[in-house]
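> call design_seq(struct)
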């Protein structure tokens, strides 16, 4: 199943547990209307880390796993934010504009690209 954002990822994890929306919300004490809006992309992911961790646990996402990294990255993007771990990396932060330009299809110099590749290798 192709994911298209935080809501689709959330829904996929819930469905994988074999729970309907209402059963999931009843089991974990969440508001079904809000979770429905969240899954349909009509509401941004929360920005509160504790709330996101509550959701991750309820969805069976192991914290510090690859799946949790994707979950928190998609949550940040849902609300138009750069993920916190990238913002706090003083070495990576200045390179983000290069990534943005590359994603837009703008030209980057070989030197800029080599610096980015080296940073990724170190990560």
């Amino acid at each position: 199943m192709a994911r298209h954002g935080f809501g689709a990822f959330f829904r996929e994890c819930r469905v994988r547990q074999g729970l309907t929306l209402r059963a999931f919300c009843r089991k974990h004490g969440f508001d079904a209307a809000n979770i429905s809006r969240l899954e349909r992309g009509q509401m941004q992911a929360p920005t509160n880390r504790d709330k996101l961790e509550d959701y991750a646990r309820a969805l069976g996402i192991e914290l510090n796993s690859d799946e949790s990294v994707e979950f928190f990255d998609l949550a940040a993007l849902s609300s138009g934010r750069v993920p916190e771990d990238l913002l706090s990396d003083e070495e990576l932060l200045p390179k983000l504009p290069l990534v943005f330009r590359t994603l837009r299809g703008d030209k980057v110099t070989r030197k800029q690209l080599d610096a980015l590749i080296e940073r990724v290798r170190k990560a």
